Amino acid sequence: MGPYCGEKVFQTNRPITTNAHTIKIIFVSDYSVAKNGFKIRFYQNPCGGYETNIDGVITSPNYPNEYPGLVECAWSVRLPENYHINFTVVHKDIELWHNCQYDSLVIRNGLRQSSPILTKICGSSNNAETVITGTNYALVRFHTDNTAHQKGFKLLYHGVPFGRYCGGSFH
């Protein structure tokens, strides 16, 4: 996450977020100037996390009931080396708008926000959609605005050893 120094850094009131279950904060001072220090507010996001099981289920907050507005969820999925991750969206009911710009479910082929997008999903369907990663890790993000609230999604994932997969979309 990096070092944060000086007064102006936190004047924007932007949150600093992490997907980790813990965060370590170290305060360093050279004792040459006395200031007020800092205040931290901690909020636990209603969704997201770190998934390492070979098989799992990821759902939007409150699924199958309506998801809340202004949610930013991120799940890091990391399986053992020599595995792909097979994702299957078994149900989706996410606000539909051009290019999924307001509410969306995004699966990336890697753990970074800059990793290639495997799929970006919105709209409603009970038809299963399957994608498979080219690596053993992926980032799943769910974003909502503050307008329409729908049922969300149910996403299944399971690890597939390299060389043992047929079908689906490979990116």
Quick description:
This protein has strands spanning 49-51, 55-59, 72-78, 83-94, 104-108, 117-121, 123-125, 129-132, 137-143, 152-161, 169-170. It is mainly beta.
What does it look like?
The mean pLDDT is 86. The strands form two sheets. Strands 2, 4, 7, 8, 10 and 11 form a six-stranded mixed β-sheet that branches. It is built from no helices and eleven strands. Strand 5 and strand 6 form a beta hairpin. It is globular. The chain has 171 residues and is an all-beta fold.
What secondary-structure arrangement, pairings included, does this model have?
Layout (H helix, E strand, L loop, with lengths): L48 E3 L3 E5 L12 E7 L4 E12 L9 E5 L8 E5 L1 E3 L3 E4 L4 E7 L8 E10 L7 E2 L1
Parallel strand pairs: 1-3, 8-11
Antiparallel strand pairs: 2-10, 3-9, 4-7, 4-8, 4-10, 5-6, 5-9
The largest β sheet comes out as: 6 strands, mixed
Instruction: State the share of residues found in helices, binned by percent.
Output: under 10%
Which class best fits the helix and strand makeup? mainly beta
Overall pLDDT confidence: 86
N/C terminus separation: 29 Å
Radius of gyration: 19 Å
Number of beta-strand segments: 11
Strand percentage? 35-45%
Poorly predicted sequence stretches spanning 5 or more consecutive residues: none
The sequence of SSEs as H and E is EEEEEEEEEEE
Shape: globular
The total count of helices amounts to: 0
